Amino acid sequence: MNHKETRPFHSFIPKKRLMNMVQGEGQSTDSYRLKFENQADVIQNMRGQLYRDSTLYIVSMDTYNKKYHELTTDSERDTIKAAATETWKASLFIVNSNPTKFDQLKKEMHNDYISGNTDSYPTTFNSTCNRLN
């Protein structure tokens, strides 16, 4: 199966909702996480992808030192898709977290990243949620 979404138009509206979802003032991280995960599940149940092709490339290079299209087994591709999904969800969750509450954390992570410390940004959804709690 091709790595692209099998039904891109069906999952467009739920994906747009997820990308525009922001943690509200006074909303707990747990409440935001539940809402976020529910919307992500809707997209995945519609066979939509929760990553971009560029994320597949980056994760594949980091994991196997190969471009995604150079991977030879379904197991390798499945591993990369799962890791790319986690990375994309982690990034979006932080970006859309409460700006008042987490602005300093976002600035620190951004400064770490541009200083070359690329490991400071969480790469899994769970590690992101833990960092925000």
Q: In a few lines, what is going on in this structure?
A:
The protein is mainly alpha-helical and 133 residues long. The chain has helices at 12-20, 29-45, 53-64, 74-95, 99-114, 125-132.
Architecture overview:
With 133 residues, the chain is mainly alpha-helical. Helices cover 63% and strands 0% of the residues. It contains six helices and no strands. Helix 3 crosses helix 4. The longest helix is centred in the middle third of the chain and has 22 residues, at 74-95. The chain is flat, with a radius of gyration of 15 Å.
Largest sheet: none
Taking the alpha carbons of the first and last residues, their distance comes to 38 Å
Radius of gyration: 15 Å
Estimated structural class? mainly alpha
Q: How large is the count of helical segments?
A: 6
**CA-based shape:** flat
Strand content: under 5%
- Whole-number mean pLDDT: 89
Order of helices and strands: HHHHHH
How many beta-strand elements? 0
How much helicity do the residues have? 55-70%
Spans with pLDDT under 50 lasting ≥5 residues? none
Compile the SSE list and pairings:
Blueprint: H1 12-20, H2 29-45, H3 53-64, H4 74-95, H5 99-114, H6 125-132
Salient structural properties:
flat, 133 residues, single chain, mainly alpha
